[in-house]
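ARCHIVE CARD
CATEGORY: sequence design from structure
SOURCE FIELD: tokenized fold
FIELD CONTENT:
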């Protein structure tokens, strides 16, 4: 037994001596590790729609980082259970993720030995779209969307920058959907409405300009084809509009925060083809039926009432139920008052119709007050743009000019604004009647039409691709 113990101890001593002698018998060279200056665990600000460039200083002993290393950048998009992945050095992208703090990592691979190094960092996304101007333009038939910052810096064709695809063709309107304007957090969207049978119109989240849905998704049962005339917001919230020559009313029977709030059900049934110039009030809708060439009405819930009204015998200037013309150039009415409509007759003459109406629980009556040739008729062309202020003073474009017209005394005057010979393609009036926002090829102008001013240009924004069609201004 003692002999066995002695043999075991001797063997252990021999092994220990062999191991000790082995120490230092070889050289160990750990692989060089890349170093990054002020990067690991740092947070980098990213402004949505602007370039995000990350270019840390990288060192690598005994090697060339540009030749011996490869780079992969991963930014986590947790709400969609994915990551955006980019390769190469430096990282240079147009940041297009929703606002918020995001985890990210840089994976560096040493191509000489295959070793990978993971460097964590964060990206804090913010948005610049809460204030500024969003411009929809027509660039040779193709819709383009541009954002103008408060300092008038233009981010042109921003939709393509974000989504790497073009918008549809034939832009019609830029509609701002704000279903809960009285709350600080709401589902605000921009609807880029285009009449392109081959491509859907996108709905964009207002704070990010990222596509969230398509206009077809706004319908419980989408029509086979969708041709938009014009949409407007009722009480600033629920969309109402002329689509496929029919009236569509957004659903209000659900809670304002429900997903279906404001969606379109079926068209308002009836034998009519509604012009895009319609009016919605608290108690009724008023419009013009191109098919029967007469004024028509709808109940407060959108039910078609047609010509279920009385023609006031004291007004005999024309027949409201059969005007005899179907080309309505412009009309904007309201709850009550004196209103004007401009029609083009078959013989090419432009006529101005004056009328008033009363629609309440007691009366449903229209009075045709006057009909005459429009004094500015010779200036009107097929693509003339119209606006009316709250005092029934009208502005309309004629090629590269804008005219002010007062129907009370037929005063017609050209504004001083000079657009360099470019045709006016957009005309919008401010809520206080003091300014016109005008679009012409490549530019958006602010024109002062306040009391005592004859249309002086006070601001010019250049760099818009194509000709402006519509604009939404957020302050």
């Amino acid at each position: 037994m003692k002999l066995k113990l002695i043999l075991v101890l001797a063997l252990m001593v021999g092994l220990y001596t062999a191991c000790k002698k082995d120490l230092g018998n070889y050289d160990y060279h750990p692989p060089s590790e890349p170093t990054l200056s002020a990067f690991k665990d740092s947070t980098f600000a990213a402004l949505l729609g602007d370039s995000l460039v990350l270019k840390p200083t990288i060192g690598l002993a005994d090697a060339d980082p540009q030749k011996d290393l490869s780079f992969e950048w991963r930014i986590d998009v947790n709400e969609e259970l994915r990551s955006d992945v980019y390769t190469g050095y430096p990282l240079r992208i147009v940041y297009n993720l929703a606002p918020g703090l995001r985890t990210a990592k840089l994976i560096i691979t040493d191509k000489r030995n295959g070793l990978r190094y993971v460097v964590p960092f964060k990206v804090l996304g913010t948005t610049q779209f809460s204030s500024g101007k969003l411009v929809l333009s027509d660039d040779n038939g193709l819709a383009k969307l541009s954002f103008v910052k408060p300092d008038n810096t233009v981010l042109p064709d921003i939709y393509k920058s974000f989504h790497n695809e073009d918008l549809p063709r034939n832009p019609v309107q830029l509609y701002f959907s704000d279903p809960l304007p009285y709350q600080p957090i709401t589902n605000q969207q921009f609807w880029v409405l285009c009449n392109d049978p081959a491509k859907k119109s996108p709905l964009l989240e207002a704070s990010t300009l990222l596509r969230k849905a398509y206009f077809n998704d706004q319908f419980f049962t989408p029509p086979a084809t969708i041709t938009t005339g014009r949409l407007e917001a009722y009480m600033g919230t629920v969309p109402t509009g002329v689509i496929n020559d029919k009236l569509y009313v957004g659903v209000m029977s659900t809670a304002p925060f429900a997903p279906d709030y404001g969606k379109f059900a079926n068209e308002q049934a009836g034998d009519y083809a509604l012009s895009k110039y319609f009016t919605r009030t608290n108690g009724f809708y008023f419009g013009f039926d191109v098919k029967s060439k007469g004024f028509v009405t709808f109940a407060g819930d959108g039910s078609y009432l047609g010509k279920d009204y009385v023609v006031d015998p004291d007004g005999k200037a024309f027949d409201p139920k059969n005007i005899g013309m179907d080309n309505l150039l412009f009309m904007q009415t309201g709850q009550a008052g004196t209103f004007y409509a401009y029609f083009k007759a078959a013989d090419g003459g432009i006529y101005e119709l004056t009328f008033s109406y009363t629609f309440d629980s007691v009366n449903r009556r229209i009075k045709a007050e006057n009909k005459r040739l429009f004094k500015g008729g010779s200036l009107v062309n097929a693509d003339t743009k119209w606006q009316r202020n709250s005092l029934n003073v009208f502005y309309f474009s004629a090629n590269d000019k804008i005219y002010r017209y007062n129907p009370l005394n037929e005063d017609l005057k050209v504004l001083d604004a000079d657009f360099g010979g470019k045709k006016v393609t957009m005309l919008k009036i401010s809520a206080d009647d003091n300014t016109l926002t005008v679009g012409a090829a490549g530019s958006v102008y602010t024109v002062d039409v306040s009391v005592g001013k004859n249309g002086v240009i006070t601001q010019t924004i250049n760099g818009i691709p194509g000709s402006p069609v519509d604009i939404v201004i957020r302050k």
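CARD ANNOTATION: Residues 240 and 249 are 5 Å apart (CA to CA). The two ends are 97 Å apart (CA to CA).
SHELF: design records, drawer C
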